[in-house]
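RECORD TYPE: inverse folding
INPUT: structure tokens
STRUCTURE:
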């Protein structure tokens, strides 16, 4: 098997396990499902809740504002908010989402399939023999399908012949995105519209229809407020939780006696009408974000940016993602938003990506004062001198008016007033959950009940994330063993642990069921328990089994949870 086939096969196994064991289901599956929407089953719900809880505990509730964590420039405060999914429409006008939050899409004129233009990669070149421009078309995800089309117009043929005979012109370009290809073709042939025959054909091998030129498609879901609502009452489901934090900045400062540096955190659903949702839950239309907007003095913002980049990268590793599968990638200058001083993506080597490719888990962005200023003054744009200015309409008025409220901050120590700068570590709860699932998936060999070696599938979740922390079994359903096992089970539950009790099937089968669910420890009550009071404690990863007194089980599990 090639590396690519290995990775595809691995992803298929992970998706199958997610469905079989109740981690993730296709939404509305009994009606045929909905593309881009997913439901979590019982194990997945616990797992995702643990991901969210780990984030909230580590970022907010266990943060000590009196002591600066390692690497932090100073002490700081962290608080939480929970804001509305549907916000005032002006929010999205001032933030830029109303005008700018779009993807370019192309449609197949024949089969009507829709693609995100920047997801399509094009190679093109000039053949000497045919003397025609040829266009190769392939998906970025590594699909080998390529399509070649040829230019028919005399003008094109003439230019192509010239280029084909020019030794300094490469015979074939390296892959470029579809918009870049179209741009190059327009420049090359000095045309404002790309000739039909040079529009690449549909990547579906069975179709071959022609694609349209890219068009803008706003990703925000629209809805109407009120029973009599018209289009004037249109509102949007939030595409990010961040704006709920910005518009409440002043409220939080004024109501909580908090000072800068301050992180305001939020976990919640966001919605984007993605053109091509794909790769399981990775790109969904409804998903959950875990966002921090960290407000600080402009002069300190570079230091805080470095701190949050490193801190957030370490968070994934502390929860079990291996360094080999994780990278912190700084954006190139061209990738940065015009107002951003720096952005770094934390990326995971998801198995559905081609070998060597990484997918974004979280972005850590230095956003300067862009957001608070936008909500004060109105939508900002870059002025002729490169500075941010309020965008104006044809009458010289602000295109979208801001709130007009003063969102600056007065530092009573330095006696300075300034619009705070923002560092934004923005993570996806579903993407993190998917990365933890992919990382946990593991196969090894272990003996079954008859001592025969069998493939064992184990989900090696970090104990903090594991949906179930321990399972308790009686070896047999008699001789007082179920009663004793239930006693231990109840004690563990009372200690606040998620535990399960299982007395069905042979013991080996029960272990395997828990291995697949990712349960770190299994406790078995047997004949000896009733005579000497000890039980077996089995470790999911090492398969090591130790005996310990049954009344020490809860303390031992709690101890192991902490180590
Ligand atoms: N406030 C900044 C912001 O929203 P983003 O990079 O667009 O930035 C942040 O989104 C994170 O949200 C991403 O790193 C990703 O984890 C998650 N995310 C974004 N779009 C998503 C989608 N369609 N499906 C699942 N997760 C998504």
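DESIGNED SEQUENCE:
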């Amino acid at each position: 098997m090639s590396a690519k086939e290995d990775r595809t096969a691995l992803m298929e196994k992970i998706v199958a396990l997610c469905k079989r064991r109740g981690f993730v289901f296709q939404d509305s599956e009994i009606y045929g499902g909905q593309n881009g929407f997913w439901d979590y089953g019982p194990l997945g719900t616990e797992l995702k809740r643990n991901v969210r809880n780990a984030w909230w505990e580590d970022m907010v509730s266990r943060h000590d504002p009196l002591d600066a964590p390692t690497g932090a420039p100073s002490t700081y405060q962290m608080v939480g908010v929970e804001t509305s999914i549907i916000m005032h429409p002006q929010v999205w006008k001032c933030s830029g989402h109303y005008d700018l939050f779009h993807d370019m899409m192309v449609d197949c004129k024949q089969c009507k399939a829709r693609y995100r233009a920047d997801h399509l990669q094009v190679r093109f070149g000039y053949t000497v023999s045919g003397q025609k421009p040829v266009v190769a078309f392939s998906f970025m995800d590594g699909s080998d399908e390529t399509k070649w089309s040829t230019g028919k117009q005399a003008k094109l043929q003439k230019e192509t012949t010239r280029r084909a005979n020019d030794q300094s012109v490469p015979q074939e370009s390296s892959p470029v995105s579809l918009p870049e290809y179209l741009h190059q073709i327009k420049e090359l042939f000095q045309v404002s519209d790309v000739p039909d025959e040079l529009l690449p054909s549909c990547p579906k091998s069975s179709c071959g229809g022609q694609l349209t030129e890219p068009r803008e498609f706003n990703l925000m879901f629209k809805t109407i407020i009120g029973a009599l609502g018209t289009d004037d009452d249109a509102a949007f489901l939030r595409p990010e939780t961040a704006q709920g934090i910005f518009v409440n900045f002043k409220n939080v400062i004024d109501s909580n006696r908090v000072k800068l540096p301050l992180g305001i955190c939020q976990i919640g659903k966001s919605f984007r009408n993605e053109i091509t949702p794909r790769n399981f839950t990775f790109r969904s239309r409804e998903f959950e974000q875990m966002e921090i907007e960290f407000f600080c003095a402009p002069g300190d913002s570079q230091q805080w940016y470095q701190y949050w980049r490193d801190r957030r990268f370490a968070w994934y590793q502390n929860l079990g993602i291996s360094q080999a599968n994780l990278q912190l990638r700084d954006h190139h200058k061209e990738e940065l938003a015009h107002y951003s001083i720096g952005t770094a993506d934390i990326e995971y080597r998801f198995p559905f990506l081609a070998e060597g490719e990484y997918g974004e888990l979280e972005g850590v962005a230095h956003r300067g004062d862009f957001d608070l200023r936008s909500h004060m003054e109105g939508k900002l744009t870059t002025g002729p001198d490169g500075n941010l200015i309020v965008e104006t309409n044809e009458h010289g008025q602000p295109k979208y008016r801001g709130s007009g409220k003063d969102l600056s901050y007065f530092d009573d120590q330095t006696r300075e007033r300034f619009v705070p700068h923002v560092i934004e570590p923005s993570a996806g709860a579903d993407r993190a959950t998917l990365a933890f699932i992919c990382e946990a998936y593991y196969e090894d060999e272990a003996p079954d009940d008859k001592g025969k070696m069998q493939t064992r599938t184990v989900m090696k979740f970090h104990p903090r994330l594991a949906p179930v922390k321990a399972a308790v079994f009686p070896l047999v359903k008699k001789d007082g063993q179920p009663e004793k096992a239930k006693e231990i089970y109840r004690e563990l539950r009372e200690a606040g642990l998620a535990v399960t009790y299982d007395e069905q099937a042979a013991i080996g089968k029960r272990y395997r069921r828990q291995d697949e669910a990712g349960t770190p420890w299994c406790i078995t009550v047997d004949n000896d328990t009733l005579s000497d009071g000890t039980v077996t404690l089995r470790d999911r990863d090492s398969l090591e089994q130790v005996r310990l007194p049954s009344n020490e089980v809860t303390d031992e599990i709690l101890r192991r949870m902490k180590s």
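NOTES: The pocket of glycyl-adenosine-5'-phosphate is lined by residues 240, 242, 272, 274, 283-284, 287, 289, 291, 360-363, 424, 426-428, 430-431 (CB under 6 Å).
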